[in-house]
Amino acid sequence: MLNGILGQKIGMTQVFNPDGTSIPVTVVAAGPCVVTQIRTPERDGYQAVQLGFGETRKLNKPERGHLKDLPGLRHLREFPIDATEGLMVGQKIDVSIFAPGELIDVVGTSKGKGFAGGVKRHHFRGGPRTHGQSDRHRAPGSIGATTTPGRVLKGQRMAGRMGGRRVTVKNLRVVRAEPERNLLLIEGAVPGPRNGLLMIRKAH
Q: 28 near 56, Cβ under 8 Å?
C-alpha cells in the first residue's frame, strides 16, 4: 500500500479547536500525484513506486520517453512500498490516503542562508568581550591541536555554507485533509520555503 505523496508548501496559518485554542498549521498543496513507474524486485532489485507531481511543458527527450502516455510532470520521486497490489501506472493518488490525527514524516530542502559564520551556523558563543579582546566577539576559537594530529579533523564545525540541505521532520500530526481542494493541514512547521517541494509519508 502506498504510504506517501508529493506536495508544495503554501505557507502557515492557524486553525481553532472547538474550545477556542489555536493550532499552528502548515498548509500544503498535496497531489494529485500520478503513478509513473512501479519498481519490482525481479526487474529492479527493490520494490517502490515512482510518483509524479506538478505540470510542466519543458521536458527533455528522455523524460518525454519515460512519460510517453502521461502528462508532463515536473517532479518525480520514489516511495518504498511493501506490496504493489492495486497500483498501476497512470493511477492518481490524493490526500485521502491520510486521516486527521495520523502521524507523518515530512522531507524537504531547508532554506539556503548562504555563507554563515560559526555563531549563526552552529550557535557558537563567541570570544570574551573584555581583557583586551577587541576582535574576537564572533570568532570560532581553536579548531584543533598542534603536533598531534597536526591537522584540522574532518567534520570540524566551522563557518561555511548554511542551509539548502535535505531535512526530515518526523512525527508531525495531520490536522485536516481536504481531497476536494488537494490540501493537507499539518501541525507545526515543515522544512523549506514557500512553494518548496515536500515528500510526505506516513510515520513508521
A: no
Q: Over the stretch 155-182, which tens digit does the pLDDT of each residue have?
A: 999 999 999 999 999 999 999 999 899 9
Spell out the residues 6+ positions from residue 149 whose beta carbon is closer than 8 angstroms to its own.
none
Q: Which amino acid is at 52?
A: G
8 Å CB contact between 169 and 19? no
Q: What pairs with residue 108 in β-bridges?
A: 167
Between CA 201 and CA 204 the distance in angstroms is: 9
Domains of the chain: 4-110+164-202 (2.40.30.10)
Prediction pTM value: 0.84
Nine-digit cell string for 31: 497531489
Q: Are strands 48-55 and 4-16 parallel, antiparallel or unpaired?
A: unpaired
Q: What is the pLDDT of residues 67-123, one digit of tens each?
A: 888 888 889 999 998 887 788 888 898 898 999 999 999 999 999 999 999 999 999
